[in-house]
Structure formats: C-alpha cells, structure tokens
Amino acid sequence: MSKEKIVNGETSLGIEFGSTRIKAVLTDYSGAVLAIGTYDWENSLVDNIWTYSEEEILAGLKGCYSSLVSAVDSKYGVKITKIGAMGISAMMHGYLAFDKDGKLLAPFQTWRNSNTGKAADELTELFDFNIPLRWTISHLYQRILDGEKHVKDIAFVTTLDSFIHCLLTGEKITGIGDASGIFPIDSKTCDYDQTMVDKFDKLLDDKGYRKSLGFNWKLRDILPKVLVAGEKAGQLTEAGAALLDESGNLQAGAVFCPSEGDAGTGMVATNSVAPKTGNISAGTSTFAMIVLEKQLSKLHREIDMVTTPDGYPVAMSHANNGTSDLNSWVGLFAEFANLLMAKYSNEDIEELEKLDGAEAQSRVDIGDIYEILYKNSLKGDLDAGGLLSYGYLSGEGITGFNEGRPLFARRPDGNMNLANFMKSHLYTSLGAVKMGLDIILKEEGMACESINGHGGFFKTEGVGQRYLAAAVNAPVTVMANAGEGGPWGMALLGIYMLEKDNYASLSEFLEKKVFKDVAKTTVCPDAKEVEGFERFMDSYKKGLAIEKAAIESL
C-alpha cells in the first residue's frame, strides 16, 4: 500500500535545514512516515561571521533528497517520480540578501550571529516591541548602520527556508511563523505590522540613509510575501525539480505550502498551535512557546514574540543553557561506575584510569546511568534541599549574562545527598526558561491549559515531565510520535494545505486527523511540588550574584 502511494505521488515531503543536520521526511496523507533522508553539515566561522556558503546550501539540499531517494529505493524498490505536496523549513532568522539577478550580495548570516546589538536596540525602542539580535530586520538595519555598500543593490532579503522555496518554485514568499522572525507581525491582518513598517521606512528617510547609501527601496519591496498555513505557495518548477533531483526522475508540479521556520514546525509536530497550549523543547538549549489569545500588554526584552503557522501570537522564552552541564555530571558518575565495576570484577584499575572520559564512559550503559540518577532524584527534598547549581556554559540572556560559568553551591545546612544533587541540576536546567515563563504566565496573566514536552530532558519517563509540571503549574504531555520533529511537522503542513477545506482550523486538523489516537502520557502538577520548585527558584534568583562573581573571577 505504501509503495503504491509513493508511485502515485500520494505523499507529502517536508525538508528542514537544521543547524547540524538537514532532514527530509516523506509521509502519506495520514501523516504516517514512509521514509527519511538526512545530510549532515556544519556552519563555519568566516571573518567572524557564522555562515554556510551558497554552495553548501545547495549541496545539502541535493544530498538530503538523494538520501531520501536511496531510502525509498531500498525499502520499497521504487523511484520517486512525483510528490503531492511539499514544504521547506529551516532554522529561523538570519540574513540572505540578493540583487535583482538573484546574486547573493553578502555572506549568509545565521541566527547565531550577535553582531546586531545597536540595530536591535534602536528598533526595539522605535517599535516599542522586542527585536532580538538574530531577527532578519536587525541584520538588515545593522548593515545600513554599518554603511555596507551592498545595501544599494538589495532586491530581496529573506531567510534560509524562503530562499530554498524560491529556488524550487520561483515564488518569493514565506509562512507567517517564519515571517515573525523577520519582522513583527500583526496577527489581525496576518501580515507584517504596517505601523512598524511605516516607522522603519520613515526612519531611513529621517536619518538620511537612502541618500547616503544610494538606494530607494522600501521595506515591503524587498521582503518575502507572507502566507498562512493552508494557502498554496506555488508549484515545483522544472528547474526546481532538476535542482532537487539530479537523477532527473522527479517530475515538476508538486504543490508547495508556505515555507516555515523551525519554531512553527515544532509547534505542529507537538500539536501546540491552539491558544492556551504550549510546547517546551528541553535539551542542549531550552525554549518554551505559549500560544496566546492576545498580545502581551507591554515590551519584555526577555520574551520573543512569534506566531503559529496560522497566525496566532506566540510568546517564546528561550534559554541558551539546558542540560549540557548536567550531562557532564552524569558522565562523571559513569566514570565512577566503571571504576567501581572494575574493582569488583578484579580488573586492573590503573589501566582503566588511563582511559579518557569518553572511553571510560563507554564501558557502562550511559542510558542506565541517566535512568538511575534521574529516578533517584525523585527521592530528594521538594526544594532540592538547599543545593544550588547553574549550568551556564554560555551567556544567558534571560538572566542578563553575556558569559557563563557552570557552578555548584550549597548552604552549610543544606541536605547534601545524591538525590538532591541531581534534583538541583535538573531543576536548574529549567531555571532560566521558567523566569521567562513566569513573565508570560504570572506577570502577564496568560492562560496555559497544557504543555507538550519534547527533547532529551524527558527521555527518562516520569522525571523531567514531573519537574516541568511543577515549574509551570500546568499539565505536561509527552507524545509518542513527535520524534521526527520539524520536517515531519512540515510534511503535515503540506497535507493540511491539500485538505484545508475539510477542517475549521489547523488545530482541528491536527487534533482530529494526526494526533487523534497517538499514545501519550500526561502529568498534572502536584501542589507541594509546585511550592517546592518555587522555593528553589527563590534561591536561584538570589544566587545569580554568585554566578556574576564567578564570571568576574574565573
């Protein structure tokens, strides 16, 4: 049956460009995954700019699709000749500028670049709306402030997913979720906020930038058109098919849905697009997104405002630091476990001690170590017993640090045991992102009825999920089928485009068709654990002075 669907082109393909991997997911029209293709890549620091070359982007697109073709051939014994629906997603933000002939005018600047401080500050003040460093408009305005010569030749400024979409379809568009990381969005019109557009254009005149740099374009002239989920955004052209599939087997004609950013596809993949729902991705970094019924009442520099793929406002709390320091501690315990095992099995401990950390850890099942330590943490005191840690390997914007120093501290009367030690590190993995969520849920009073969790933090059943429920005081659900992540979410958006007329909304489509029978577990908050987490957070906030001193001293 799956083979026939592939042959007949009854499929949807989502391709997502992540920071280290490009991934393609081919599904049938029920959303079931048929095949997966991947391509690994890595950004480069060139002249102090985090970038991928245009050649690398094209090679990644072709390589990922070729991997998918091979997977289909291996599993089903057929070639992909036609596809029903397609969509491209990618890491959001950044800066790609082209002239009228489609020539790239300057190196692609990814979201990682923070060389836009002056621009972001000026625009935040101008708009009275938080403009993060990584947003496309920050990059564009910084190029203007820096007087870069290429500004006069700009005909199109866009993001990575929109660029790929244009290559394959010839259409200069992007989805509203991705657009919300380019420029502020008005959720009532589902377009760029016109008042702010006018302010930006007036700023360029008032400051004399158009005259001094020799350009006359206005902002809307150079940005991609905004579309919402369910709208058609072009078709795969002959040139696009030839670019994507060098074998020549793929036919033109696949219908494209609007391209999207990885935040939007993550919302779709976790069924978190309806107002009063949210999702938290907790791993190396941690970010939480709450879908709002209305805009926040005022500017908060700690909170990013984006949208769902169908235009609802979303408040995002993003923490740079998640579980990396916690993982290092687990690795330390793994080394100790190996030494202990060696003693009781009469191995040569001196030889074992010569092994480096990675080799030592490999001798024991690291998954068992995680499970033992995580589950044992449940025995700890509700506030982690007076123990405190910060896993700040890098700066943390929410708490106001440009650098980080991982540290562990405790009061003399703290209840120092293994359970509390691990609980303090698990709690602190949510510390910064909780401070942002407290602004959204407590200070702004926004409602959140349920949150979906995904990422490594939730891998040990019943631990991370329970701690998050205590942190946000809301039910937390972990689903069984969100493992394919963003590219699967992109493929679902392709299906929704084809079947939009059958559903009242994107949320209804996901609820009734995709997630109706999905296995999931939900943990509700326990009042005592909520209180305990709040006591820990009181110590966390007071202890930021310790982190500050560590940065200044170490």
Automatic annotation (TrEMBL):
UniProt keyword list: Kinase, Transferase
Looking up Gene3D superfamilies in the UniProt record yields: 3.30.420.40
Report the record's Gene Ontology biological process terms: carbohydrate metabolic process
Q: Which Pfam families match?
A: FGGY_C, FGGY_N
Keyword ATP-binding in record: no
User: What InterPro entries has UniProt attached to this entry?
Assistant: ATPase_NBD (IPR043129), FGGY_C (IPR018485), FGGY_Carb_Kinase (IPR050406), FGGY_N (IPR018484)
Q: Where is the Carbohydrate kinase FGGY C-terminal domain?
A: 279-497
Which segments of the protein form a coiled coil according to its record?
A: none
Q: Which GO terms describe its molecular function?
A: kinase activity
Carbohydrate kinase FGGY N-terminal domain span: 13-242
The UniProt family comment states: Belongs to the FGGY kinase family.
Q: What is this protein called?
A: Sugar (Pentulose or hexulose) kinase
Which species does this protein come from? Eubacterium ruminantium
